[in-house]
Amino acid sequence: LEFRRVLFRSFVKNTEEFFSYCKENEVEFVDFRFTDIKGAWHHISYRMSAVTQNQLDFGMPFDGSSIDAWQPIDKSDMILKPEVKTAFLDPFTADSTIIVICDVYDIYKEEAYAKCPRSIAKKSLEYLAEANVGDVAYFGPENEYFIFEDVKIKDEPENSFYSVDTEDGEWNTHSTVEGGNMAHISGKKGGYFPVAPVDKGVDLRAETMLILEQVGLTVMLGHHEVAQGQHEIGIVYDTLVEAADNVQKLKYVVKMVAHLNGKTATFMPKPIHGDNGNGMHVHQSIWKDGENTFYKEGNYGNLSDEARWYAGGIFNHAFAVAAFTNASTNSYKRLVPGFEAPSILTFSAQNRSAACRVPYGAGAPATRLEMRFPDSTANPYLAFAAMMMAGIDGIKNKMEPIGPMDEDLFELSLDEIREKNIPQMPNTLRMAVEGLIKDNDFLQPVFTAHMIDTYQHYQYERQIFPYEARPTAYEFKTTYSC
Fold first, then answer.
1. Which residues lie across from 150 on neighbouring strands?
2. What is the pTM of this model?
3. Given CA atoms 223, 224, 226, 229 in this order, what sign does their dihedral have?
């Protein structure tokens, strides 16, 4: 499949350079994109000839009442404020199109919109400096995803089901395939690092990695993950807002490359029962005056007190944080024993069974914390901001986390976890949102009370209540004959 090849890493710094760049690349359309409360990208496309300096400086109007959980109809007018330095050419459109990421402006309060996730992320960085904790926050997300060949979904009152199929699936060992069944299948939990022909995603990942570089991401690696049909592409960390922008770009490119190759990609945490799920491990560090505040040579994992307290803050506010980092009912089907999903709230050097890992061999520049419980249903701007706000609260109040624990926590029984008094992640989205309702003071320097209230009602109405009201096939299996 041929994609339009262009040099994408945009060095646009201002509107003058933006117009020059568009002229050089014969741009026909400008695609203005913004992120809603659940993390989905929305867009509006302008003809290049209709885009003016004034629009780029002051923004474009749009209807905020048509976006879930945003404005009422009587106060629907809002403004998209483009940030031209985010501009990159879309590799998938037939006509030359440049994408520009936008913030949302509230014309009624004459300030950044309180429900705009990207604006909240920017505000969290302002608070980081005001709290005198740091001046730069680096985030490095690792987004896992599945590639399927076929997906069917039905949700009706009398009949509901889903069906997914991947050529990696162990259920396909006996399938009839045109040209013959070659039987090279990874199977359940058998997908970590096999070579072709077992790894059937080599070319698709390679195409994806090349396109990701074209849209401005620095790609390090790609590989098949543990589960059937599961993959990961590693990109270089960035500052908080830019790292969240990169998640949006990565998800767009992964889905589009799969789609244009006749496949479908999903970042859903647990699409296959009985196999590993998709996480979004997030590496984090705070810097101040050019120094990594998380580094202290000679300490456990070379972690400073600030790094340890940062982890303690996230663990102390874990339920509220989870409402943003694990933002779907499906998230909690991943956070169960037996599938390498870290739900035990402790920290450990090198140990991937803890909710927070300290990566091996990190010197002063690379010492960081890797939070392993988040997943890609999170709105990246809100998730990163929520973790950092919890971490800042931990530093300010010197919150000590439990640990370090270097044993294999996946082997602990529930009774052993209780005996050791080790805190865990919430078991359901309802528990997480209830945690947010009870514990949100640490967020309110950045997340307004109205935003938090809107978010919790949105989660209840969109996911929790509908999910809890629906019978499942497994419930029929276990209760029908009672």
1. 165
2. 0.95
3. positive
For residue 210, the number of C-alpha atoms closer than 13 Å in the C-beta half-sphere is 14
Q: Which of 168, 238, 370, 393 is catalytic?
A: 370
Beta strands in 324-460 (DSSP E): 347-349, 356-358, 369-371
CB 421 within 8 A of CB 414: no
CA distance 237 to 176: 43
The reply to whether 232 belongs to the active site is yes
Of the candidates 199, 243, 274, the one whose C-alpha atom is nearest the C-alpha of residue 374 is: 243
Selecting among 31, 90, 144, 393, the annotated active-site residue is 144
Per residue in 59-101, pLDDT (tens digit) is 999 999 999 999 999 999 999 999 999 999 999 999 999 999 9
Residue 167 bears catalytic tag: no
Strand partners, 224: 231
| 33 given a catalytic annotation | no
Instruction: Identify whether 259 is a catalytic site residue.
Output: no
Angle at 366 between CA 363 and CA 372, to 5 degrees: 120
**315: pLDDT strictly greater than 90:** yes
DSSP sequence for 356-388: EEE-TT--TTT--EEE-S--TTS-HHHHHHHHH
Q: Is 150 a catalytic residue?
A: no
| Active-site hit among 63, 111, 155, 441 | 63
Which of 69-78, 99-108, 205-214, 405-414 shows the lowest per-residue confidence on average (mean pLDDT)? 405-414
Instruction: Answer yes or no: 224 catalytic.
Output: no
Residue with tokens 């990566």: 359
Collect all residues with Cβ–Cβ distance below 8 Å to 429 and sequence separation of at least 6: 323, 326, 327, 328, 329, 331, 332, 459, 463, 464, 467
